[in-house]
Structure formats: structure tokens, C-alpha cells
Amino acid sequence: MPRRQRKKQKRSYFCSGCAVELEVDEPPDEVLLCEDCHDRVNAADIHWFVSHVDPTFISGSSDEAVLKPSAPPLGPSTVAGGAATARAKGWIADADAVLVLAGAGMSRDSALPDFRGRDGWYSVGGAEVSMEHMDFHEQSPHWETAWRALTAMAAAFRSAAPHAGYARLRRLAAEKRVFVVTSNIDELFPRAGFDDNVYETHGSALRLQCSTVGTDAACGRGVWALDDATLDTLRRRYSGDAVDESAALPRCACGAAARPNLSHATDCDEDIDRAIKGAQRARMEAWLAAERRSKLVVLEVGCGTSVHSLRLDSEIVAASARSAKLVRVDPGDARVPEGANHAGVALGAEAALVALT
Fold first, then answer.
1. Which option is the CATH number for 78-356: 3.30.1780.10, 3.40.50.2000, 3.40.50.1220, 3.40.1280.10?
2. What's the burial of 21, exposed, middle or buried (CB within 10 Å: 0-12/13-18/19+)?
């Protein structure tokens, strides 16, 4: 007897501005706006940030009166995290698959700063550095500032080593299906052995690309490693308060300026060469589609609460996957939404991963 064909459920899609239902032929890959709201948003000249796992989900907006962020997928995070380690450990042991979402807190135990903390990359002498100053477009007035900051980061990333928590995740990956989504740009996950099962949402500070990407003059070279010789030259250029012009910035083989293969607040999608990032994202999407009905644990580690973090991404996946468990690891704010399938663990990344696995 032939197998009964399962009827596909049609999903409704709505305008992010006014919530009117829209006719959509296929799943969208960007924020949906009706014609009126599209014109209104363009006239207001605002920008917004979207989730890394769902490009229709607005995580932040520069003018919430014009375009509101999407509602939290699991509701507000109000339940204090703390003594849930044993319960979370049981969920992980019982899982078939584990999606790890890791932020800057994952790297702190490898002696790397975060970005907005008191000793973070964007806090210099107690003064906050604007994200707009991290601008890797050659015509930007902040071009040298951005390269100086990138040089300091790249040097620290190159000398850092993955802590014991990475090894625990590798051991877990030998037993279960594990995929890592990370906003970190330090390449510690690939160095720890996560090659085909990692998506670096912001790219890497240790890879370069041509600055012509996204323009009609794009040379198509792709992505290459920031090697030791280039990093040494950069460190010489920024060794003092003044820029040492004799130490040249890296250039592409086509002669154009090079830039890091990482996306920042000042970048559009088309500015970033997707040779690596695009393939990583495709593997993530395939993995998520395959694991929607698995015994899935969403393990969020050190993502913080910034609008650019992966905290909402973990909730989006947990809300969309059947019976998924959400484990939030954060020593500062491990609160989770209400629900029996959500647990907060108020520990640092290394200590939590050793305890949970």
C-alpha cells in the first residue's frame, strides 16, 4: 500500500510594518514590507538588524516608531537562570542533536576581551567607541581607526588558544549531531576542529577579501588568509600613536585595497565575499531543516543581550523546532522565558561546558 502523502501546511506571511497579510510565493529571504510601508521606511531613512537564522525577523531598528522589532519568539526573558545545570545536562545527554550558539562570552575564557564590556574591544580608556568607526570602506574617514582596531584583534586572536570547553563540544560532536553558529570572529571554533559544521555569522578577522566585492569592478579573487607577514606589517604600521606609512596596508592581487572578510554595522550584505560565509550558511540551513523534528537542544553560550547577539536566534530556533530544549549559559544574565523546556545556567562558558557535557 503506497505511503500517504503528507499535506504541506501553507504558512502565512505578514508585513513587518502594518501586519497586513501578504501574498508570498516562496519563503522570503528579507524583511517583508507592503508597498505603503516600504515607501514609509525608505522616506524615514532608517536601518535595522535582522536575525542570523531568520532574515525576516527584525532584532533591532534605528527608529522603532517607524519599524518595530519583531516580538520575542518565546516571550520576554523573565525567569532567573541559576541552579538548572543538572536538568540541562540531562537534556543534552538525552538529545539527538545540539545546536550551539556562541557569542563573545565563549571566547572570554580563552583570555580574549568581549566587545562592549569594561575591558572590551570597543571600550578604550573607559570611552565607548562608536560602531560606525569600524568602517572598512576605503573612502571612510575612519579607515585607519578600523584597521588599527582590527590589527589589535587579529594579533590577540592569533595568539589565543581554545579553552577546555571547545574540547568538550568536540567530544560531544563525536556522539551526537552538533552544529555551531557563532558571532565570534576569532576562528577559535575552526581551530578547535569545527570545520564543516560551523557558521561564522560575522566572518573572520583573520581572513581578507578585495574591497571591490559588490561593485561592477569586482575582481572575483575570493577570500584569503591574513598571514603572519601581513599581520607583522600591520602591527608595525600601528605600533605608535602615529601611523607608520612605510608599512603598507594589504592589497588584493588586482591592485585594489584589501579589507577583512567580516561584516560589521557599516556593511551591507553585498560588501562581503560569500565564498566561505555563504557555504557555511547553506550548511546551517540544511542542518536546521533536517533536525526540526529531532530531540534537539539549543545550547546558547555567552551571547549577552546586545541587539547584535545570537540570543534571539536561539529562541527563534527553539520556538520553531518541535519539543526543543533551550539552555542559556551566561554568568551575567541567564534569564529565560517561562516554560518547562527553558533553563538558564549562570556560569562562564568553560565552567558550564565542562559541567554540562
1. 3.40.50.1220
2. exposed
Instruction: Kindly report the pTM of this predicted structure.
Output: 0.91
Beta strands 325-329; 342-345: pairing state: parallel
Three-state DSSP at 225 gives strand
| Nearest C-alpha neighbor of 275 from the set 203, 193, 183, 190 | 203
CB neighbour list of residue 140: distance below 8 Å, 6 or more residues apart = 146, 266
Q: Alpha-carbon distance 230 to 207, whole Å?
A: 11
Q: What nine digits make up the cell of 209?
A: 577579501
Note the pLDDT tens digit of each residue in 212-239.
999 999 999 999 999 999 999 999 999 9
Question: Any idea which residue has 565570534 for its cell?
Answer: 184
Q: Where are the domains of the chain?
A: 13-61, 78-356
Q: Which three cell numbers stand for residue 332?
A: 551575567
Task: Give the DSSP letter of residue 132.
Answer: G
